[in-house]
# Entry
Amino acid sequence: MTKKWWHDKVAYQIYPKSFCDSNGDGIGDLPGIISKLDYLKDLGVDIIWLSPCYPSPLADQGYDISDYYNIDPRFGTMEDMERLIAEAKKRGMYILMDLVVNHCSDEHEWFKKACEDPDGKYGNFFYLRDKKEGKLPTNWRSYFGGPVWDDLPGTDKQYLHVFHKKQPDLNWENPEVREEVYKNINWWLEKGLGGFRIDAIINIKKALPLHSYEPDREDGLCSVKAMLKEAKGIGEFLGEMRDRTFKKYDAFSVGEVFDEKPEEVPDFIGDNGYFSSMFDFNETIFGQSEKGWYDAKPITPDDYRKCCFEAQKKVGDIGFLSNIIENHDEPRGVSRYIPEGDVSDQSKKMLAVLNFMLRGLPFIYQGQELGMENVPFASIDEIDDISTLDEYQVALDAGLSPEEALRIVNKYSRDNARTPMQWSDEANAGFTTGTPWLKVNPNYKTINAASQLQDPDSVRSFYKALIALRKSPEYKETVVYGALAPLWEEQHNLMAYSRKADRTLYVIGNYQNEEQSVILSSPCKKVLLNNYPDLQMEENAIRLHGYQVLILEM
# Structure
C-alpha cells in the first residue's frame, strides 16, 4: 500500500448546527467552530469534517442543498468559511466538507428550471416520468418512508427522490450533471479545502430501465435497496470523479458506502481507489430489520467484536477504513454498544480503545470524546429528525403502543447525536446564550468539556492519551500500519487483537462487568494504556476488572 499524508491522522466530525453558537440565536455557526479550534488541536485532531453548512431549507438538516457555492446565513458567511480554512491551516489542520450529490434541494435553481420546462435541459438533470393516474412509475419506498415518486409542480410529470420529497435525485447518467458536480468540487478544493466526505454515494447509479420489485411490506412498496442490488457500473462515475477532482489536488475523500461487494473493496479504497477511505458501517447496520426499528435486534459484545473483525478481514491491507463509534446519523455509541446499565467512564474508555486501535483512520464525532450519551426524549414532540418521526409511525402501525414506540425510537434516533455539544455546566451546556434549536441532554451538568479538561482521569483525557499513542514516533508505525490479528476470539465478552509491525501490541478489552482472565503467550514488556489504576497480573496471567481495557507492548 502506498503511504499517504492522511494515514496517520485523526479525524473529528462537527455537526455545525449543534457545535458552538457564537451569536446567541440557538444555532451553532462557523465563528463558533473557529473559537474551538484550539480545543480540537489540544485533543490531537488533524482533520475536521463539517456536516453540510450550505444554503438549505433544512428538510433533512442541510443534506438538501439549494446552492453548492455558498454558506447558509444561519451558519455564517463565505468569509467565515475562508477564515475557518485559514485558521485550521495555521494549526496544521484540514477542513473537509460534505459532498451531497446524489440529490439537491427542490429549492435549487436546477429543479426550479426543470419545473418550468420539464422537456428542456434541466428536466434531464433529474429522473422525470409521465404521470399515470393511480399508478407509480416504480414501487420503491424512500429511505424516509412512502413512495419515491412525487408530482413535479405545475406539470403532468413525476420526479424521483430516494430520500425526502424535497431532495430530488440528480441524473448522473447525464454528462452535464457530472460536469457541474466536478466543477463545484474543484472550486472548493481551489479554496484550500482538504477534501470531502461523500454522502449516500452508492445511490447515484440506478438499475436502468427503472422498474418495480417484489413488495416487502403491506404498503405494497419495496426498499430502494432492491434496486441498488441490481445496479451495475457505478465505478465509471466514481473513477471519473476521482480523476477529474480529488486526484489532481491529492485531496482526502471518505465515502459513505453501503452494500459494497467484497471484490469491490480494492476499487473503492485500493491504491487507485475511487476514495481515500470509506466508513466501516458493519457495526451500525447490525441487527437492522426490513420491518423497521421496532424489529431491530440489539447488538451484544460478541456481535460487536465479530462485526469489527469481519470488516478488518474484508479490507486487510488493501486500504484504509474510517472507523466510527457514532456519527450524525446514529445514536450515541456508548448507549448502543455498551449493555444497558453498564454505561460508565470505564466502559466508555474500553469502547474507545477497542475502536480506536483498529487498523484504519479513527473518526471521533463531536462529544464522543466526552462520553456523551443518548437523550431521554419525554415525548415525540421533542424530536426533530424526519427518519425518527417516520419510524415512530411505522412502530404504531405495527401495533405498538405510543409508549413502546417512543421507547424504541429513543434508542435509535439520530437526534441523540444532534443535541447541543456539552461545553460546560452553565445554562444550555455553554452551547448558546439563546434558546437551543434542540433540547440539551439534561446530563450536561456531569458530562461536559470544562470539567473533563481539568480531570486527568476523564474520558476526554483518555482519548487524548489514545491519540498521543497513535502519533508517538515509537508506536506510530505499528498503530497506523501494523497487521491486525484477533486474539482469544472464542472467549465470551472479550475483545482482543494484536497489532504487529516493528513492534507487537496487544489490545485487550473485558466487555462485561464481571472479571475474567487471559493468559499471555509471552511476557508483557510494557503497559501503554490502562483504564484502571491497577493491573492484576501474575507471570503471564492477567485478571481483568469489569470493562478493563489494556494496550500492552509485548
